[in-house]
Amino acid sequence: MIGSxxxxxxxxxxAIEDALIKAVSQTLPIGQVLVLFGxxxxxxxxxxxxxxxEPLFHPDVLSMPMxxxxxxxIVGRLFYFLAITLVPLSVATVILQATxxxxxIGAVFLFSEKVGWRRWAAIxxxxxxxxxxxxxxxxxxxxxxxxAVVGMFGFAGRDLASRAAPQSISTTLLGVYGFLSIIAAGExxxxxxxxxxxxxxx
Length: 202
Known about the structure:
By secondary structure, the protein is mostly helical. The protein has eight helices and no strands.
């Protein structure tokens, strides 16, 4: 129950985050938003690590699960940021809610976790809900909604890679390198976007 409460609270925070990102992306280039977002998050986790006297680097950071996690983090954040800016926020948010469903599916095949029929039924219902939201084959279908789907898969892969990460990597360090990955995603997209960065208007 405690874990579920934390999850509900975090999803509420994600909803607020998405709304703020959509608002700021109307005036700033997406690449810049990603870099600023990543820098702010990394700074917070670095401060937490310093306060806890945790090293900011560990050899296991270069392990295969961590490298896979970085790739999925970049894919998830970049495509979901694009989705937020190009499709209605309600559509992108609903699609993101399917992330835990694919995490469960991945955990079954990758970590041999046991899932009962009730959870499988809930997963099927959730997937049907995502299909209804995307509405493939209808006139209201937006190809940009697929960006949110790709982002959702990126987040699911990131969470699964986090589970496979070495135990020597603390959650704080996962946060540091996760947000550094977002900075990398912003820099990569900036090259493609070719937009002039602007000073944020406070």
